[in-house]
## 1
Amino acid sequence: MKILFADDEKSLQKLMSLELPRLGHEVTVCPDGLTAVAALERNTYDCILVDLDMPGLNGIQVIGKAKELSPETEAIVLTGKSSTESAISALRFGAFDYLTKPCRLVELQTLLDRVADKRELTRKYRAVKTRLEKLEGKSNLIGDSTSMQQVGRLISKVAPTNSTVLIRGETGTGKELVARALHDQSHRVEMPFVAVNCGALPENLIESELFGHRKGSFTGAEDTRIGLFEVANGGTLFLDEIGELPKSLQAKLLRVLETGEIRRVGDNDSMKIDVRIVCATHRDVEQMVAEGDFREDLMFRINTFEIHLPPLRERTEDIPLLAEHLCRRFWPNVPMTQTIFSTDAIRALKSHDWPGNVRELANVVEHATILCEEPPIEPDHLPRRFGRSSGDGAIGAGGAAAGKPVLKAIGPLSLRELEMQAIYQALERHEGNKPQAAEELGVSLKTLYNKLNQASSMDKSA
Ligand SMILES: Nc1ncnc2c1ncn2[C@@H]1O[C@H](COP(=O)(O)OP(=O)(O)OP(=O)(O)O)[C@@H](O)[C@H]1O
């Protein structure tokens, strides 16, 4: 690290100018506070090491200046008096830690290692955050239709509150995107947004996944682990597919929502947490309550505020904007003025019934960007179920009017297309119930999720 050392003790100045480079750091040594501030004005340091009692400006004033000039610079104070009071006030001023003189070199080394670790973690966190933002894009909900405008209005009303929100809608309608928008528009935006799919977790692990566990609390619990509620502390926890949560967990979730406290598996004490809960489901929760599969008290607790996402077939006017938006994920360099879809291609897209909603559209768009070398995308670039030429009677074929998905195959389909067709048809037959669709398809629920998410993750890796 690049370190600034400021102390009026000559022997220490000499020691540090020798020892800090030996520990692998680059050091600038200053004999007093004023010189230190002058150095801070010229250069940026990773860490400053300052004596509290110096002639001219004292250590706290130097820290204040360092934080003003470069908030990310860490500060360690050296205090000669072993005065906890002055050390505490230094911590209040944003110092990382303090050392009491005379300190041992090994203590200093440990502390500097901690500073370096913190800086590396911050850097990694930034890199991951930037990458995630690039991959996920902003929580940009595309859609100008009346129903999507209403969704946008509801989001901006409820986002700043702490209310639990239930997002309802068919698979692929953008429920997770809405959950992220709620988080992004709330005061929690700088804190974590954690999404968990209640349907994709094995039943015996959900509790520990959500609440964490203590080492040895069950076979396989080799370490103490914090759960997703704790990871999301201060932020938002998105419980996707809440309808799939086993009943035993429903009771526990209800208790957490009512008390604001969680207890790790195997722990006796509970702890307070501050997490905003957003849930989503494609299931008819009222029906599940009537059939005894979902607790009525939990339903009332989570549906304080509901946002309904309309299926894509009911807002076909959003398709051109959405298709273009999704396309630009694959073609980020295409100029904004360029027409991306021909009129015929848009007509073909609009006549489809979209049982897989926006996720299916993303899939189709991806397919088209592979086939099409240069925009605009024509019907020929769409998967075969859209028909290969406009006006041949195959596109749409009354599907939308009949309220049924159009999965008409013209010519041979690729394996992936066939697979997706089978998945969407199964989902349709089971009214979006993924566990039932997975069972019918003979695949695990996890595999079904993976297949459905393939389009999204392909977008992300593009
Ligand atoms: N209005 C929208 N604007 C832009 N992209 C959207 C929109 N709606 C959905 N998407 C995209 O469609 C894909 C599926 O969306 P998302 O995962 O939010 O759906 P979901 O309703 O949560 O699905 P599931 O119920 O299967 O979990 C994502 O890639 C998402 O970015």
## 2
Amino acid sequence: MPQFAANLSLMYTELPFLDRFAAAAEDGFTAVEYLFPYAWDARTLRARLQAHGLQQVLFNAPPAGLGRAAMAAAWDQGERGTAALPGRQAEFRAGVLQALEDAEVLDCPRIHVLSGIVPPGVERESLKGLCVENLQWAAEQAGRAGRTLLIEPINLRDMPRYFLNRQDHAHELLDAVDSPHLKVQMDLYHCQIVEGDVATKLRRYLPTGRVAHIQVASVPERQEPDRGELHYSYLFELIDQLGWQGWIGCEYRPAAGTRAGLGWRAPWLPG
Ligand SMILES: O=C(O)C(=O)[C@H](O)CO
Ligand SMILES: [Mg+2]
């Protein structure tokens, strides 16, 4: 039976961030993910998780910045990671170490590392070596800390010039980095927009054991997975048949209220 985690950055936005934990738990979620913890003291977030019987299953390393305040502000300033960006290695490394520290407090096993926006005039291909080198260093740190780092192909309509867009490119990076501590975050919304053939890709990649997290949303609106051009009930059954034991993050923007839109989950609730 697929297990769903609420994404508190996109869901429950009717509520202030810290109140979203209680709302997700009231709706029967036992796990959450969200973009970033850096605007908060991680102990405050841990208290919310514990108070509501939730586990944190994923968050992102900082998109850029040196120091917690700069890391917390970087996303709104347009930063989308530094793993593949020349001249940003100090921020990359500081970000990974900060994320590992927060993961310890939050007892979170997975951290998504964003690779960045390809600078104007630069060829994507030319950044691969640097990205591999940075990810090798980061995967080693993650291994020591008992965490798994993830990379996620993201579509270019939502994130123009983002470095990593295709599933095969993510798996090529895994080949090059060659670490058990680096895996793929397979977001089916992005996968459908960039390359399609989603069921075939699930059949190809889930059995490899190299996918450590799945995320879902309708395409193209990025809303509940009961609408749009992807037939999610088929895909959820397939994911189940493929023996997936991991989490599926609900990374969607509810069409008309988070709770009102949760009907799609009914067939997948335990008991
Ligand atoms: O945008 C997504 O799909 C994500 O999962 C990232 O965490 C943020 O870009
Ligand atoms: Mg995603």
